[in-house]
Amino acid sequence: MNSQQLHAPPVMTNNEATYTTVKVAQVANWVLAGNVSQFPSGVGGTIKYGNRQVAVFYFARRDAWYACQNLCPHKLENVLGRGLTGVQDGIPKIACPLHKKAFSLEDGKNLNGDCPPLAIYPVRVENDLVYVGFAD
Ligand code: FES
User: Fold this and answer.
1) ∠ CA 67-52-59 to the nearest 5 degrees?
2) How far is the CA of 55 from the centre of ligand 1 (A)?
3) What's the rounded Cα separation, in Å, for the pair 106 and 121?
4) Residues 31/49, Cβ–Cβ less than 8 Å
5) Strand, coil or helix: 6
6) What is the pTM of this model?
7) How far is the CA of 99 from the centre of ligand 1 (A)?
8) 91 strand-pairing partners
9) CA-to-CA distance for 67 and 56, rounded, in angstroms?
10) pLDDT truncated to tens, each residue of the chain (136 aa)?
């Protein structure tokens, strides 16, 4: 393993789709996800960008938006958008509806196991429209 691999961001693939965390500074494309009214608090909405599926969440109590890959790293199922949201030790989280693995929506880390982290995407809201940032 060379030093570039050691410091590479987490990447997850599901045959054809590849997921990598995107920081705001890396955004090349803000993709319209929908109107804010389409994302009730705590209920995930899923968008497709190319062959990737990204789950988008709004936490009303924090007035905060989060987006992560829809693909659960446990069994590689596209289900996280249907997961249960919550807060654990102050960290907003999504729990997979299948086997309840929970992931931080801030950095993607698995909070109750040793699954690989989720890729996290920045969210921007402008004029009641919700955008997810992609690096490509
Ligand atoms: S598939 Fe998500 S926890 Fe098992």
Assistant:
1) 15
2) 15
3) 9
4) yes
5) helix
6) 0.89
7) 5
8) 88
9) 4
10) 333 334 444 566 666 689 999 999 999 999 999 999 999 998 999 999 999 999 999 999 999 999 999 999 999 999 999 999 999 999 999 999 999 999 999 999 999 999 999 999 999 999 999 999 999 9
